[in-house]
């Protein structure tokens, strides 16, 4: 994999900005706390499915205190359809207890403190920082990991290493939109099994497409 030049990266960003000019997280939320809970629920689950359960969930439990005091079984029943509901319910309760104990029930706005919360990894932390606080960070989900590698922006598969590679390659001002644009692009064209390369505006800059053409 040849390292992408600064000119190539600029072109990639320009194309993504033209193709997906208005992007935002697809997780419905009204506060940083709701976004935090929704992002925990989104692990190995679609945003659409999470959005189908959170209205009833947040109507029943409005605050970290509500979740921390709720019977685990009651939370599980409301989030059952998101999958892995036993572990997700437990993590949400533990996370809410930590918010109360260490942050007076408020979601912290920095990476270090977010990562100390149960159930919160770098992906979840970056989603919250980006969408709730406008703080730049690269969210590495399955789409971002897959497409970044196909484009030749990273050779890694470990999310933390992919994030580090992208941090180095991309200007900080592009981080938030870039993550979301790749998520949109992954859903629309650059799918895991059958990418629609013939319709992709990034085809001339894509290592994966070039290798497929030469094969």
Word description of this protein:
Helices cover 61% and strands 0% of the residues. The chain has helices at 6-19, 32-41, 47-60, 64-69, 72-79, 85-103, 111-115, 122-133, 142-151, 159-169, 175-188, 207-214. Helix 1 packs across helix 11 and helix 9 (142-151) packs across helix 11 (175-188). With 215 residues, it is mainly alpha-helical. The model has no long low-confidence stretch (mean pLDDT 96). The two termini are 15 Å apart. The protein contains twelve helices and no strands. The longest helix is centred in the middle third of the chain and has 19 residues, at 85-103. The chain folds into two domains: 6-23 and 139-214, Endonuclease Iii, domain 2 (Orthogonal Bundle); 32-133, Hypothetical protein, domain 2 (Endonuclease III, domain 1, Orthogonal Bundle).
**Strand coverage percent:** under 5%
CATH class of the largest domain: Mainly Alpha
Number of helices: 12
- Show unreliable segments: none
Straight-line N-to-C gap = 15 Å
Instruction: Supply Rg.
Output: 19 Å
Q: Structural class, from secondary structure content?
A: mainly alpha
Oligomer: single chain
State the helical fraction: 55-70%
Using the coordinates shown, work out and report the CATH topology of the largest domain. Answer: Endonuclease III, domain 1
Give the mean pLDDT: 96
Please tell me what the overall shape is: elongated
Count of individual beta strands: 0
What name goes with the CATH superfamily of the largest domain?
Hypothetical protein, domain 2
């Amino acid at each position: 994999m040849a390292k992408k030049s600064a000119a190539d990266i600029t072109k990639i960003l320009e194309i993504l900005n033209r193709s997906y000019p208005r992007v935002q997280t697809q997780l419905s939320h009204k506060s940083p706390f709701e976004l935090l809970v929704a992002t925990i629920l989104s692990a190995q689950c679609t945003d659409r499915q999470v959005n189908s359960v959170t209205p009833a969930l947040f109507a029943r439990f409005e605050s970290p205190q509500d979740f921390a005091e709720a019977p685990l079984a009651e939370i599980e029943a409301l989030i059952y359809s998101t999958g892995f509901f036993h572990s997700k319910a437990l993590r949400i309760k533990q996370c809410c207890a930590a918010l109360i104990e260490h942050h007076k029930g408020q979601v912290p706005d920095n990476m270090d403190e977010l990562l100390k919360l149960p159930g919160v990894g770098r992906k979840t932390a970056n989603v919250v920082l980006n969408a709730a606080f406008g703080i730049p960070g690269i969210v590495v989900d399955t789409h971002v990991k897959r497409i970044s590698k196909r484009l030749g922006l990273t050779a890694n598969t470990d999310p933390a290493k992919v994030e580090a590679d992208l941090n180095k390659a991309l200007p900080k001002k592009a981080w938030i939109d870039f993550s979301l644009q790749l998520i949109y692009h992954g859903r629309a064209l650059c799918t895991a099994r059958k990418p629609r390369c013939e319709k992709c505006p990034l085809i001339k800059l894509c290592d994966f497409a070039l290798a497929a053409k030469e094969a």
